[in-house]
Batch of 3 targets.
Target 1
Amino acid sequence: MILKRPAWQSAVRLGLLGLVLTWSLFPIGLVVMASVKPAVTIFEVPPRLTFHPTLANYVELYRRWPEFFGTLRNSLLITLGATGLTVIVSSAAGYVYSRFRSRALTASAFFMVGIRMFPPIVITLPLFPAANMLGLMDTHLLLILLYATFFVSLCTWVMRAFIDQIPREMEEAASVDGASLTQTLVRVTLPLAAPGMIASAVFVFVFSWNEFLFAFIFTTTRAKTAPLILSEMLGAVTGVDWGAVFAAATIQLVPILIFVLLVQRHLIIGLTAGSIKE
Amino acid sequence: MISPVLLMLAGFIFFPSIYVGWLSFTQSSFGRATQWVGCGNYLALLADPYFWRALLNTIIVVNVVVYAELFLGLGIALLFAGGVPWPRLMVSIVLAPYAISEVVAVVMWKFMFEPTVGMANHWLTRVGLGEIEWTVNPTHALVLIVLLAVWHHLPFTFVILYTARLTIPRELYEAAGIDGAGPFQIFRRITLHLLMPAILVALLFRYIFAFRLFSEVWLLTQGGPARTTEVLAVYLYRAAFRYHEFGLASATGWAMVIISLLIGLYYLRVIYRRMFASPA
């Protein structure tokens, strides 16, 4: 597979690869490692690679920011809610865009893509008083709806690309055998479109778990998410308690990092289907 | 079956954006009746030096970030396409920053560049470059913001270009080699030419998204010192949620929309031209 190259070229390529990997991983590794270091050695330069791992920072986090664990729960609820909602509505819409053609549909497709260009911060202006009025301020529901809304266009597109690849004949065969439309969709189309649903779910999941802006503006206590409390820890007037911040950051990032690495293939397929496909 | 999607988009983006358009012609704040002021907000915006500063910062940061990502992303994509050991694992590692929250990314970079104690500053001083004084020097702060943004968003550009590069058939390169084309010619005539649609897509998306840059700036500098590192989104946030001038904030919002639309249209036009020009 790999072409024959002069030795010096291979060496240069390996060197470059090393640089790329360091660039990607160094900041992450640094924080994860610092989270299990004794507080006094955190700022040692160069960072010490051998040390007695300690959970002191995690204990400190639990002692000084017990709230953090509640925000993790909020983040998880909101993420799951937004992911479920997005996958359901965009699968339905993607199916329609894939199987039917009409001028109204084309127009609505342009609307869907065009509207997504709108910067999210701009719509916080009218939503802020509106959410206040409707009593949606600081609720999980509001964030679920917002996160889902900002991903339904992309996910509808991804779903459409995937459903396009499923032969219509399979659906027709099912209906000849007496299946209703709902049965056909649930038993035939959706299982075949599962990779698309996974790809869509990954996008929303990662976004909702990590999102800061909407959480910052629309939540204060009850629905506060993990990234938001992390930002508060970072901006604490008493000075940053780095040990606790690293512990919290590690707890926040490790699960999602593992998740992304596991579903990497779906993520790549989805990104390509969503952006290249017209 | 598409109605839920359209309802969500209409309810949470379309109607609010129209309402923002109306707000931008009024003066309003909490608990006060809105008052029609015509183009007053836009004129106030144009007369505000802080707005121009924010606009300039945004344009500089967005351009540097987007092109830096493009060059690095293209470089890494070609390096990977040329064959690397354990490709799947390596791609995963390059993708890793995609999984990281903006807030956590700020934690990482702030820690490395912490004044006097951060290790990056320590090393920079060691090699004689001097510290990055991002807490006091606006240029240094913008440099740090650019570094952070490139680190965070490089995976996207990389994936788009890498997957596009993998679809170029090997035979093309073999044929070019037989015809005696040099490496530079091969790169320009085959690689770059066939990657152009993917490059434009990556550029378009990254322009639109980079334009919204908010969290990184807010969490690192809050636009300070003395509002010198503000970008448009931070300017808008401050106008709305600190000074409660919703009219001015709305005008900023529409200014952002119009500017990013113009950029988007420009790139779309280039994309279409390319597609019609090369019937490949």
Target 2
Amino acid sequence: MRGALALLALLALAAALAPWIAPQNPYDLAQLQLIDSRLPPLAHTSADAIRWLGTDDQGRDMLSAILYGLRTSLVVGLASTVLAFAIGATAGLAAAWFGGWIDALAMRLADLQLSFPSILIALVFLAILGQGLDKIIAAIVLVQWATYARAARAAALVERSKEYVEAAVALAVPDSRILFRHLLPNCLPPLLVLAAVQMAAAITLEATLSFLGLGLPITEPSLGLLVANGFNYLLSGAYWISFFPGVALLLAVVAVNLAADRLRDALDPRARR
Amino acid sequence: MIAFGLRRLAQSMAVIVVMSLLVFAGVHAIGNPVDILINPQADQNEIARATTALGLDLPLAEQYWRFLKGTATGDLGNSFVYNVPAIGLILERMPATLELAAAAMLIALVFGIPLGLWAGVAPRSAAGRAISAGSILGFSLPTFWVGLLLILVFSVWLGWLPTAGRGPTTDLLGIPVSFLSADGLRHLLLPAANLALFNLSLVARLARSGAREALQQDYVRFARSKGLAEGRVVGVHVLRNVLVPVVAVTGVQFGSVIAFAVVTETIFAWPGMGKLLIDSINVLDRPVIVGYLCVVVALFVAINLAVDLLSAWLDPRVRVRAGM
């Protein structure tokens, strides 16, 4: 289990340091040599540099492309998780605290969203709005806020009847302060575990949408787009162009999932063995 | 039961109305409907003519009414690419998607239930641990990447199975299907296995936890103390307890299998509605996109309704909980 956290830290570090540790800048066309295209893993280029994971159809070093792709994938996963968390938790807390039509509206919207699979909603949203980093983050937020809203509402309904909340009401603390300074911290543990699980889902969803050609534009390739690009060469046997980006994606998703498990054990005393 | 059914039906209708409003808003408010509904290659005169013909110069409320009438009568405009009614194009591709989804669900159940039972009965054995670990991996593996690996291993390296397409189809009651011919089956196998992976893991986990729970119950202890063979205890008494959640989840997951078929169909060039959707998005064939959305929303609402009615019929507690 500790291995999972180490793996996650390693991946995050590699993604953050990509411009400094990658053997080449994969998107600087001046550094690409067509003569070195589709080299298998461990081959040497014409300039006698080793290509650990091979090169793609334009002579791009796959290891460098994966490090840059990992960077994009993790940034999208993190940004959409933070936004969906903020929007969903606010909606859920407000629904539980105010009740009435706010509760009904938020929960019916959540029901509506959750009755359709996430990929379908994201697909249609992107089909109407087009590609882009901001749009894919918006699409992921759109399909994930409802889960946070439900979890936050359930947790807040339990908390709101407790004495510290009654005390805050008696002191005439403003609603917004009760929501974010009193209720939110006490509802946080289950929401944090959920956020970790949802981040893994966000990374997978972004990769899937990019693979389908609906996510990020070709100028900011994420791991999903690298896999899609390699698909064209798979049938001729050049497996490495899609295989290794997929492995990197799998490692990232598994590391986040295992970290979520660990977070759950740490935050829930009953689960501790 | 009738009251519950009527109430559930009313909820479904409400979902359809809300979704139609959202689709309408998506087409008419977020984007420019002239861009969305009229072929971008048309010239000024054609655009003006089409604008009047489609009623885009009418007030919004009237336009929404026309949109509802069009949807209800199955008229969503012609595809820009094929120049035939979009809805007909989608319905034509639907059997391929439903066949793929049904095959995937079948694979998930046929392999998932026995594997889950095995892992539940012998959780500490090597096989039990391997099944549990495998099911976690099945959740984490991105579907599209597994599809590529299947093609790489079984088509490119081993050369056993075809990489793309549906193969020959046979008519069954007027509907073309693949599974009746050997070559069609060979084409179906890889995409169905790819699509099944996620639900196979899910079913195995459900069956595992269901079996572990059932094994603690008194009725299983009683069955054992009666001297029943272990095979009969697990295969009859435990299995029956495991099936209830599995059936419920299978129903709900069928909808998401249809949605995820978009990915699998794209990889394996399976000629279903999911591939049609992606192709239409790539060439901005918007009537087909709107049509796909309408068909899938209707399909989903129908599936959810059927699952709810079925579970209310199987389990009276659901009706009580729903306040009926």
Target 3
Amino acid sequence: MLDRNDARSRPRWLRFLFQGVTGSRRRARAGATPAAEPRWLAPFVVACLFVLCLLPLVSLAKAGLAGLVSGQSVGVLSEPATFAAIRNTLLTATGGMIVSVLIGALFAFAVALTDVRGKLALSFAFMLPMMIPPQVTALAWVEMTGPASPLLKTLGIAPPLGSPQPLYSLAGISLLLGVQHAPLVFLALKAGLSASPRDGVEAARLAGATPFRVFRDIVAPLSAPGLIAGAAIAFVSGVGNFGIPAILGIPAGIEVLPTLIYTRLASFGAGTFGEIALLSSLIAVIAAGGLLLQQRALSGRDYRIIGLSGANAAFSLGRFRLVMELVLAAILFLVLAAPLVALVASSLVPAYGVPLNLQTVSLRAYEEILFRQSMTLKAFGNSMFLAVSAAFGLLAVSVPAAYLMTRRKGALANGLGILIEIPYALPGIVLAVAFILTFAAPLPIFKVSLYGTIWIILIAYFSSFLAVSLKPVMSAFLQMDPSLEEAARLSGAGFFRRMRDVILPLVAPAAGAAIILVFLIAANELTVSALLWSAGTQTLGVAIFNLDDSGSSDLASALSVLVVVMVVALMAALEALAKYLPEGVLPWRN
Amino acid sequence: MKSFVSAAAGVLVAGLLSTAAYAENLVLYTSQPNEDAQATVDAFQAANPGIEVEWVREGTTKIMAKLMAEIEAGNPVADVLLIADTVTMQRLKEAGHLADYKSPEAANFDASLYDAEGAYYSTKMITTGIVYNTSAGMKPSGWQDLSKPEAKGLVTMPSPLTSGAALIHAQTLTGIDGLGWDYYKALAANGATAAGGNGGVLKAVATGEKAYGMLVDFMAIREKAKGAPVEFVFPAEGVSAVTEPVGILKTAKNVDAAKKFVDFLLSEDGQEVAVKMGYIPARNGVALPEGYPARETIKVLPVNAAEAVKSADADLKTFSGIFGTN
């Protein structure tokens, strides 16, 4: 159950990469003696995981239960606002799931089964919406549509005065959740499709079946598990998403559970901890419910495939190839290119409501955020500090943990695997609440409170992204032949010597990938830091959100443009590293 | 790999040092828009070399929640507050969170503009009136115009759950005969929306998403000067006003710097900075910025501060009951 229980808001695809860490672990060789590992290793890993993964959950459960038992916070469960938020959460998550499935499945089928050209470029571009922070996606779409759009104004096709912004609605939130999470469906489905039987398809074609018949009778049933898994993950991601409903829902008075928690905490303060713990539990329950439904849908659909798998270009589209390519390009233009152009346009206008042209174009917004606003520079510095510390610091946990889990078998390794997945599976807003509850009170020995400092955000990042960091490292350990280390051990090399001379050089490329992946996600993070930031600890995600909230959407757009440039550059860096990386680390590659 | 580790260690140490450095800086919590906050801080730092100011901006209601959470955690970071209204300041004073400081500049201010014991000082006057898009069909002249059929679905306003000025505004208008909470109910029935802070209202009206809005004066007048298609009206019934007071927290770590900050804001130079940003200055003898009518023609509606403190929570609940929770 837990290894499917996946509800982080953004980096969902990493979830796939992580699958199988507990299940398909290669058993340690019979000859490897446990004595080969130092005595402190297991206690160290277990202690780290206890603080990062278990403790916050215990605090959350305790506060929620205390609220229930004392009866103080039960009222929140019967408030109309809570009911509305539950309803809105279910509606937008379901709507988003449908959009994700439609777009994601189209791309997955086209890329995995047909002979369209430029598959790598298509996959790379299609993955981008997931890597761009959700609040930036939402801002970009807002700038693209409605009477406020500088893009439409410049083109002279803006809707008339007083037209409502169409995205400030349940449908708008659903659409954007769908776009943001479509890559999850794409990845889930593509993984399944590349394992579908080439033999079966060829046999059916030889027997005279039409391509449609082949699709309906062979490909579709076999892809059902991937589709269901992708749909479930898109749903759960939609339940936990904060950035999109925060930008689109709050101005229209549409609350979902994550924004309700945020506004409660932001406007009424710490007195509402009990209520907030209960609301967080509601999100966790909805997410778990979605995953249970998925399991039920998947049961009885256990297909085993014999013979050759790998369905490279099972269908050649012939003259429809160009049509298909145009359709895919048009979708990418609509969901990716047009919003980003609108974002750039809105960062260049001098004042609200002024159309953009050569006379009015102004770099004032960039000048303001780069050279005048100490706040954005501070936020940039904080995000860099958090992302770099999390990316490098996590290796200190993930390398020993991966070592331990590949060398040991049995209950300990399985238990650790499950433990690591829990914080990754929880929606960010729930995790943030759990960390507030854990660290608001002063630490037992040091007598200082972490709440209000940058360290609480860093610890929450460690907890949240441990699974992200572990995955590439783990796959590198699994590919490594244990006899290398054993030979070093038999020659008398101690643990640290073996680490330095044998293991670390071999896992270095994977560790590099882990660093970039964690960095990419942490540098753009909003949900956790939105609840945990304080004076001097605001992050880039918070800065963008706060600029938009204060009405400076030109500044928010300019900062967003810079963030998108950074994301694309980092993804390109990963792509350049691709040939040194273990297979499956980069989601847009096969 | 080793270089990774040393790089990580380096970053951690740098982070520790920079956290430690916060303690030396004056920390300001403010509800001013980002650009104004930065300009205020820049001017202060130019006048007081050697003092670094760290600032945080949120709507008054939200920044209070943050401050209270920090106080409860025993770790309040802020030294000085520069927030929308004296009602919130009065609340803080009554809860014992503010330090008294007699500023020498106070002599140049009307006695009603600061606390007699020196807990807080008004720095400017910010009125809330009506902003409209120049392509709107109706030219509003009074508050009642916003509930007319011509404005159906075209009105927006800031929410008291975010903005301190909006709370005072609602408390002021509901205290007027003939308006009251019925006025807000009529607005809600007419399709008016209330969400976020003043910045969002400005954007919605300037870009034509909405035609009319309740908005603080300086935002509209300033944006008009930049070329945005908006006009600002001081309605016939009068306007509500907040005075953006500044106060020093009892828990302040940098008391001397905080006092200098208060003095600077109240000084003639500090008031000129506010005027340059388009605010009505609070100090006697400082001229209004361009784009405003003469000071005596602006009719400011009274609000009973003591009453307002007591009813704030109830008013927030009433408001969110009418417009939904945000």
